[in-house]
Amino acid sequence: MNAPRRSVAGFTLVELLISLTLLSVLLVLAAPSFGTWIRNAQVRTVSEALQNGLRVAQAEAVRRNRQVVFYLTNDEPGLGATPAANGRNWVMRWIPLPGDTVDATAPANEPFIQGGTLADVAAAVEIGGPVAVCFNSLGRRVPNNATGVAGATCTADIASPLAAFQITRAGADRSLRVTVGLGGQVRQCDPARVLGDSTPDGCPT
Fold first, then answer.
1. DSSP states of 85-146
2. Which of 136, 140, 139, 176 shows the shortest CA–CA distance to 158?
3. pTM recorded for the entire structure
4. What is the pLDDT of residues 64-77, one digit of tens each?
5. Does residue 123 register a pLDDT over 60?
6. Which CATH architecture fits 13-203?
7. Which residues touch 190 (CB under 8 Å, ≥6 apart)?
8. Residues 6 or more apart in contact with residue 64 via CB below 8 angstroms
């Protein structure tokens, strides 16, 4: 006796073409929102990197029991990096006191502590805000116009208690802000929201 033949299920060429067409349409529709999501993620990545750098500078000031300056630069992070508004990298240095010997060839006397790059994280992200922020040995933000770095002047005024860095990117539908309070509080917030009991991620007014 001959065995019964089984039918084999599968796609016809027409069904396959229709499926590919629908998939292409869905991808085209999803592309703008996916691109926006990527740009928003880049903003958050730079914001978090900047926030972490500020917190490290604050911790170094406390650990070394002396003032530390954190500033933005467009140079490669290092002892000779010059401050720059909206810089793409950052540098932290301890601030020499009267009588200190500063020697770039002697590690114990070289004021450069650490540096970091933000441009490599997301090249199109813009950073606006103060050029420099200074922390004292208690981790508080303080004014200082004698940081040992020309152009890295720190301000701290009770009338304007927050030093705020604004992080934006063209094509992103949100921006972020990193603030440093007079007490040294470093936090990231959403400038589109106002800080409150129901919006802990918002920025203070």
1. TT-SEEEEEEPPPTT----TTSGGG--EEEEEESTTT-TTEEEES-SEEEE-TTS-EE-BS-
2. 140
3. 0.79
4. 999 999 999 999 99
5. yes
6. 3-Layer(bab) Sandwich (3.55)
7. 174, 176, 177, 201, 202, 203
8. 94, 137
